[in-house]
Amino acid sequence: GYKKCRYRLLHSVFEPYQPSITKWPTQITSDLARFGKHVRAIHYKLCFVDFKEDTKVSDYLELAREIYQGVVAGRKKLLIIGNALPLVAADNSASIGAKLRAYNAMLQKFAAKHPNQVYIFDQYALLADDSGALNPKYAASKSDSHLNFAAYQMLEKAYFAFLDDHFATLP
């Protein structure tokens, strides 16, 4: 179960990333219009299925820029971005693995350009094994990159520590 905490969290689910990159910023700004006065920060992440062989890493970064414009520049909110999730070894091709690492590196640079506005929750480092694949103890199965209950328990603990580290002293 979920623990009661001092953070008020709003969870929105978006349509899959593919094929339309333009829906997510609209959905996020729509949620902000409805709940904005109660929201201090927006957290978004892509799902592992959103990373396709034929999509350029720059497209994913462009999505982050668009969301930044709507959330930070447009609404003066903070932006938390969950970086790319690792895939099980069976699905972690060299090209997808390189794309995930490149996206995560681009996000770090993006956040560095926007200090105290953009924060990266490094779920990749928490979930990946030494080879960069999803640690089997966190995978639904050897062939399924969905996270299991143990992964969500670990991420929940890490996420609330992340919130405390970055936001506990904010007004």
Q: How would you describe this structure to a colleague?
A:
- Strands 1-2-3 form a 3-stranded parallel sheet, sandwiched between helices.
- The protein is built from 5 helices and 5 strands.
- It has helices spanning 23-35, 57-73, 94-113, 123-127, 149-167; strands spanning 41-45, 78-82, 118-121, 139-141, 144-147.
- With 171 residues, it is α/β, with parallel strands linked by helices.
- Kindly state the mean pLDDT as a whole number? 83
| Morphology | globular
What is the strand content?
A: 5-15%
- Taking pLDDT < 50 over at least 5 consecutive residues as the criterion, the unreliable ranges are 15-19
Could you estimate the helical fraction of the residues in percent?
40-55%
Rg on CA atoms, Å: 16 Å
Largest sheet: 3 strands, parallel
Strand order of the largest sheet: 1-2-3
Order of helices and strands: HEHEHEHEEH
Structural class by helix and strand composition: alpha/beta
Q: What is the number of helical segments per DSSP (H or I, 4+ residues)? A: 5
Please provide the count of β strands.
5
Distance between the termini: 28 Å
List the helices and strands and how they pair.
Blueprint lengths: L22 H13 L5 E5 L11 H17 L4 E5 L11 H20 L4 E4 L1 H5 L11 E3 L2 E4 L1 H19 L4
Parallel strand pairs: 1-2, 2-3
Antiparallel strand pairs: 4-5
Give a brief outline of the structure:
The chain has 171 residues and is of the alpha/beta class. It has helices at residues 23-35, 57-73, 94-113, 123-127, 149-167, and strands at 41-45, 78-82, 118-121, 139-141, 144-147.
